[in-house]
Amino acid sequence: MASDNKLLKLSAAALGLGAAYLTWVYKKGKNFLSSIDQIPDTLDRAVLCKTVSVTYPHPVMKDLKLGAFLGHLKADFSNFTFEQDQYDLDITVLHGSIDVTLPKNVRLNITSSGCQSSIYNETHGPEGDDTVLISVYANVRHGSLHFETAE
Fold first, then answer.
1. Is the pLDDT of residue 57 over 60?
2. Distance CA 65, CA 150 (A)
């Protein structure tokens, strides 16, 4: 009888912790999504608790924001056209990951902050007249960010 009572109290405590965690995820996720514009006219994208793969058909590059909170975002920029020679890319990752595929003529300048995170730059950093510079401002906390060049 006493062990049943302890088990009941332990179960109630576990449910309480689970509810507190879900409340935290909901509040943080809602704040996170509101920090990234996702109106139809922008290229900005964010994911919350899911995996999303985004392919832009043939857009013109603009300064943009990407974000992942407890999720994974795969963004393919390989078909972008460029009207300028420099762009800004703001990236926020909280307990998630983002993979970005870039065209061959893009060079990255990455400025990062975060903790317990990893950033992989596997682009080839070309030089030349048609080279486009993308300045990346990455805030990665407990997650990963990966850049690669399109085949």
1. yes
2. 20
